[in-house]
Amino acid sequence: MTLHSVRRSAPSRRPAGRRIRNRNLLAAVLFMAPALVALIVLRLLPAAAAMFESLQRSTLLGGTSFVGFDNYVAMFQSSGFLNSLGVTLLFALIVNPVQVASALLLAVLYSRASAGSKFWRTLVVVPIAAPPAVAAVIWSVIYRPDGIGNSLLRLVGIPEQPFLTSSDQALFSLIVLLSWVGVGYWMMFLIAGINDIPQDYYEAAALDGSGFWRTFFSITLPLLRRPLAFVLVADTVSNFLVFAPVQILTRGGPDGSTNLLMYDIFTRAYTTNDINTAQAEVVILVLITVVVVAIQFRLLREDS
Question: The whole model's pTM is what?
Answer without folding.
Answer: 0.84
